[in-house]
């Protein structure tokens, strides 16, 4: 089969660069257009990335009838308005995490996507990695139940008002950027928690860290945390009835997991293709080829449940972003 799915990408930053690297590995998709707020930047990217079309405004790329599917790689605050714009233009979308700032925004996106019959998915790439597909299968077939999960994601940074991480107007902070991963792992393996209790520190409008417990009843729990001021081992541990699964650092992009049983460690390897974004790209293309409007692996309902968990964490932390980016309007 030739390359027949044309991608447009908007927001030409660090992650979009990695995304394009893996898109170039795809057999059935091609980079067709790049869109930036700056035409000069778009033209430079076009040349560097060997791309047919460049736009100096996101709206021009979104309106291009040749584009089959759009990847949104902008900071968080733009995901919601760009999703609305894409859907209104009948475009399929793969949007970086977090797909929106809050659950109310996502509810509207979900409704519009359903009404328009377009495919929309959150780029939660961990879900599509071979090791995580195998991990879920292993646990489901093990006949064991999960008793506890411990997962974190931390890295040390200095305060920098020019960084999106520290900018409340861009919905910065640890939770939406990296805390989403341990929360995802808990939701992926255990589903919706009965209760959530967290603590953390909010400084100058963004959370530096949060740490908390997701309670699933009968003492089954997940301990999760994220921090942008210190390092951690970035390892995930899943305790089953008879075994312990360790996903080694950096667990959210791991190629392997290790199983401890009776003092014996067994290693399972599932290498990813490219930088790992290949797998979410391939999944989207598979869904589009099959005319699906919903991902079979991570649906908008899954994104919504995860978003509701993050809303609760934010509410406990007293973390509100400026009204201008929290608003739900069409
Ligand atoms: N899946 C992953 O592994 C992963 C890793 C890192 C980040 N992410 C996610 O990817 C998204 C982007 O992160 P990033 O690290 O790539 O960010 P980045 O390097 O800062 O790039 C973001 C791009 O968005 C555009 N943009 C639009 N409005 C902007 C504004 N007000 N300030 C700054 N940039 C603006 C810019 O592109 P133009 O100038 O071309 O318009 C910019 O280059 C976030 O949602 C983040 O959570 C995902």
Summarize the structure.
The chain has 330 residues and is of the alpha/beta class.
Strand adjacency order, main sheet: 8-9-10-7-11-12-13-14
Question: On the 0-100 scale, what is the average pLDDT?
Answer: 97
Main pleated-sheet profile: 8 strands, mixed
What is the helix tally? 10
Number of strands: 14
Provide structural commentary.
It is a single chain. This protein is of the alpha/beta class and 330 residues long. Helices cover 35% and strands 26% of the residues. The chain has ten helices and 14 strands. It has helices at 14-23, 39-49, 58-63, 79-88, 103-116, 130-142, 174-190, 278-289, 300-317, 323-326; strands spanning 5-10, 29-35, 53-55, 69-72, 92-96, 120-123, 146-154, 195-203, 206-215, 221-227, 236-240, 244-247, 256-261, 264-269. The strands form two sheets. It has an eight-stranded mixed sheet with strand order 8-9-10-7-11-12-13-14, covered by helices on one side. A six-stranded parallel sheet has the order 3-2-1-4-5-6, sandwiched between helices. Helix 5 packs antiparallel against helix 9 (300-317). The radius of gyration is 20 Å and the shape is globular. The protein starts with a strand and ends with a helix. It binds NADP nicotinamide-adenine-dinucleotide phosphate.
Give me some keywords for this one.
alpha/beta, binds NADP nicotinamide-adenine-dinucleotide phosphate, 330 residues, 10 helices, single chain, six-stranded parallel sheet
What does the secondary structure layout of this molecule look like, with pairings?
Blueprint lengths: L4 E6 L3 H10 L5 E7 L3 H11 L3 E3 L2 H6 L5 E4 L6 H10 L3 E5 L6 H14 L3 E4 L6 H13 L3 E9 L19 H17 L4 E9 L2 E10 L5 E7 L8 E5 L3 E4 L8 E6 L2 E6 L8 H12 L10 H18 L5 H4 L4
Parallel strand pairs: 1-2, 1-4, 2-3, 4-5, 5-6, 7-10
Antiparallel strand pairs: 7-11, 8-9, 9-10, 11-12, 12-13, 13-14
Helix pairs in contact: 4-5, 5-9, 7-9
This protein binds NADP nicotinamide-adenine-dinucleotide phosphate (NAP).
NADP nicotinamide-adenine-dinucleotide phosphate (NAP) binds next to α1.
């Amino acid at each position: 089969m030739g390359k027949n799915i044309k991608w447009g990408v908007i927001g030409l930053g660090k992650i979009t660069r990695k995304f394009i690297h893996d898109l170039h590995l795809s057999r059935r998709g091609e980079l067709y257009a790049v869109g930036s707020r700056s035409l000069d930047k778009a033209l430079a990217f076009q040349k560097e990335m060997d791309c047919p079309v460049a736009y100096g405004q996101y709206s021009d790329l979104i309106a291009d009838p040749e584009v089959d599917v759009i990847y949104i790689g902008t900071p968080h605050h733009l995901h919601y308005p760009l999703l609305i714009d894409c859907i209104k233009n009948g475009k399929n979308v793969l949007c970086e995490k977090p797909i929106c700032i809050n659950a109310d925004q996502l509810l509207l996106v979900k409704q519009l996507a359903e009404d328009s019959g377009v495919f929309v998915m959150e780029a939660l790439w961990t879900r599509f990695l071979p090791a995580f597909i195998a991990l879920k299968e292993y646990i489901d077939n093990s006949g064991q139940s999960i008793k506890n999960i411990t997962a974190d994601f931390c890295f040390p940074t200095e305060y920098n008002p020019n960084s999106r991480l520290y900018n409340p107007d861009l919905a910065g902070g640890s939770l939406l950027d990296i805390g989403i991963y341990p929360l995802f792992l808990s939701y992926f393996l255990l589903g919706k928690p009965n209760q959530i209790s967290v603590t953390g520190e909010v400084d100058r409008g963004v959370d530096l860290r949060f740490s908390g417990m997701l309670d699933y009843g009968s003492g089954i729990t997940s301990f999760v945390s994220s921090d942008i001021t210190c390092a951690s081992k970035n390892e995930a541990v899943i305790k089953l009835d008879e075994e312990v699964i360790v996903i080694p650092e950096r667990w959210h992009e791991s190629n392997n997991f290790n199983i401890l049983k009776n003092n014996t460690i067994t290693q399972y390897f599932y290498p990813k293709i490219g930088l790992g974004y290949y797998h979410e790209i391939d999944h989207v293309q598979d869904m589009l080829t099959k005319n699906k409007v919903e991902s079979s692996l991570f649906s908008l309902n899954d994104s919504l449940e995860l978003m509701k968990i993050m809303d609760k964490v934010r509410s406990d932390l007293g973390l509100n972003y400026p009204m201008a980016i929290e608003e739900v309007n069409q």
